[in-house]
Specification:
Length: 316
């Protein structure tokens, strides 16, 4: 990837895509192509073909996806499977057909088996059953990364994948029901503080362990990986450190300055018991995360409050 490369960042308005675009511009990349979902429906094959026919990017960074938390994945599995399969199929094939030599597909740590040995290594993929609460999304992401692997093998194009751990940061989705763990906690604790509530209740037992990484760290990993001449077909991107959900809630509580009590609700699903990534492969390639969870939560809460005051909070 050179400063002259024509780079398509798919999903540039989302948390990950916007972080990647910011990082590229900071490094002096100017030929960045973007399209909003209103301008280009990535689930529509004809529209995607037309876009690639016209633009012919040198590099594609696939940060677009239909995403959500446990509740959303449980409630809309068909939609999560269809949309993410369509996005992967349409973009990977159209990119190849129009001469794109470099394609980076971003997946998720939920692709790994529910009870895989911790920390999760890349080679544990497809060794046992998935977590049922996000199986549909995981299967679609596995299909996308495998398609990249097969195109690389058959057509000698550098199509490869990064599997990020759970992400958070500016531009996250704060929908009251469909958001992921950290934005859901930030909103819940903030509203409890504003309403002088005595308690905040978190889903499940609070004992499952989660690894969280700031989106700006992922953006750095994306650029680093794209500058490797022969990147791994699949590499984990994470911090290599995890916390219990209750510990994460305690960090959020401290940052938000909520003075009440945290309660758990064991009647709600816990999800996967632990998801900690083995990040040694990417570290051997010269990259390591640098933003601590405390620092990242503080920055994210500042962005949350700013978005609230400007009425720009993302809630979808």
């Amino acid at each position: 990837m050179t400063p002259e490369s024509k780079i398509y960042v798919a999903g540039h308005r989302g948390m990950v895509g916007s972080a990647v675009a910011r990082r590229l511009r900071t490094l002096g990349f100017e030929n960045i192509i973007t399209r909003s979902s209103a301008e280009l429906d990535l689930t529509n094959q004809a529209s995607v073909n037309d876009f690639f026919d016209q633009e012919r990017p040198d590099v594609v960074i696939m940060a677009a996806a239909k995403v959500g938390g446990i509740h959303a994945n449980n409630t809309f599995p068909a939609q999560f499977a269809y949309d993410n399969l369509a996005i992967a199929l349409n973009t990977i094939h159209s990119a190849y057909r129009n001469g794109t030599k470099r394609f980076l597909f971003l997946g998720s740590s939920c692709i790994y088996p529910r009870l895989a040995p911790q920390p999760l290594k890349e080679n544990c993929l497809l060794t046992s059953e998935l977590e049922s609460t996000n199986e549909a999304y995981a299967i679609a992401k596995i299909a996308g990364l495998k398609l990249c692997e097969y195109y690389r093998k058959q057509y000698a194009v550098t199509y490869h994948s990064l599997m990020p751990t759970n992400l958070y940061g500016p531009g996250d989705n704060y929908h009251p029901e469909h958001s992921h763990l950290l934005p859901a906690l930030i909103r819940r604790f903030h509203e409890a503080k504003e309403n002088d509530s005595p308690t905040v209740t978190i889903w499940g037992s609070g004992t499952p362990r989660r690894e969280l990484m700031h989106a700006d760290d992922l953006a750095k990993a994306v650029v680093h990986t794209l500058n490797l001449d022969d990147p791994p077909s699949l590499a984990n991107a994470g911090t290599g450190v995890d916390h219990t959900i209750l510990e994460i809630a305690e960090i959020v509580k401290e940052v938000v300055e909520f003075t009440g009590e945290i309660k758990t609700d064991p009647s709600k699903p816990d999800g996967t018991p632990q998801k900690l990534m083995d990040v040694s492969l990417l570290e051997r390639q010269g990259w390591r995360a640098s933003i601590s969870l405390q620092e990242g939560v503080r920055k994210t809460y500042e962005d949350f409050r700013k978005s609230l005051s400007e009425d720009t909070l993302r809630e979808r």
